[in-house]
């Protein structure tokens, strides 16, 4: 990563300029999930799964600069998240980990804000309430009584279990971590396929806990490999290994990583489904956010697998270079995103070939890793 320090320095400066403009434009509101024609509009309220990526970026901007403006702006968002959990707004989701780790756990770790701690623990309790006892999985979406959603979880949830591990460490109550371990083991055994690809979502029988079948929502087909899901697998299994020391989770992360790297087009930025890597002439879009997530996952994973570390670091550097050169808004001052050319949900035609808030966050996380040796992640 040292070799690209100059290039990342320029990219960091450009990213901070965009964040400054967005801070002035959005105030205490949140950018939407994705851009439209390259620009975010404010979302009306703190709903959905992506809002915490905005304070997450502000915390990163503080790490990159030491500028107190960013710290204060990030900390000010705690109120929006305490309000959300207290009023029960849009909480029927596994994404409470994304939401409360970057907003409130970070604010607690850095500033010891007791309201942030209270809200993050309440979010962890809510996440725990989504565990299906028969299978030990955390239901991904919807009301617990919804028959279409019962027994279903999702590869992205690997990024949400850190909230549970944090809750156990903070309270001394082992139930959160036990739930996270059981859930993650089910993903290792069923969401990760024998050929090292991942299902997007997977169902268990709510009554018996038997594993049933995989199904996609955002991938090309039930049996294909949605690129962002595979990237969540790289980073998510790696984080769960960090919390548990379980070598089978490390092996799962390596399997996700090796498959991902073997199915990239020439510039290293994945198509939105890895199935298209076999035929780049299809013209299918890239998902820059999958690439950005994978960079962070690979760098974190490299530290745990000495025999692959050089390769993972080299590949992460190559992908990040490609993102800076071909996908970032360095040369697009008309955009208020950091990264363009992502795909949110191609089957539903949402956010296709646009910027998205998590892509921006993970791109900035990757730039932070590249320019701040020794930086530690917030997950
Ligand atoms: N976690 C939702 C997504 O990756 O689209």
TrEMBL record:
Entry EC no(s): 3.2.1.180
> Which residues does the record give as substrate binding sites?
95, 156, 214, 216, 228, 232
Q: What Pfam family is a match for this entry?
A: Glyco_hydro_88
Q: Which Gene3D superfamilies match?
A: 1.50.10.10
Q: Does the keyword Hydrolase apply?
A: yes
Q: Which superkingdom heads the taxonomic lineage of this protein's source?
A: Bacteria
Entry keyword set: Glycosidase, Hydrolase
The protein's matches in SUPFAM superfamilies, at most eight in alphabetical order, are given as: Six-hairpin glycosidases (SSF48208)
Active site per UniProt: 95 (nucleophile), 156 (proton donor)
Q: What are the GO MF terms of this UniProt record?
A: chondroitin hydrolase activity; unsaturated chondroitin disaccharide hydrolase activity
> What InterPro entries would the database entry show?
6-hairpin_glycosidase_sf, 6hp_glycosidase-like_sf, Glyco_hydro_88, UG_Glycosaminoglycan_Hydrolase
Q: Which GO terms describe its biological process?
A: polysaccharide catabolic process
Q: Which family does it belong to?
A: Belongs to the glycosyl hydrolase 88 family.
Q: Kindly provide the name given to this protein in its UniProt entry.
A: Unsaturated chondroitin disaccharide hydrolase
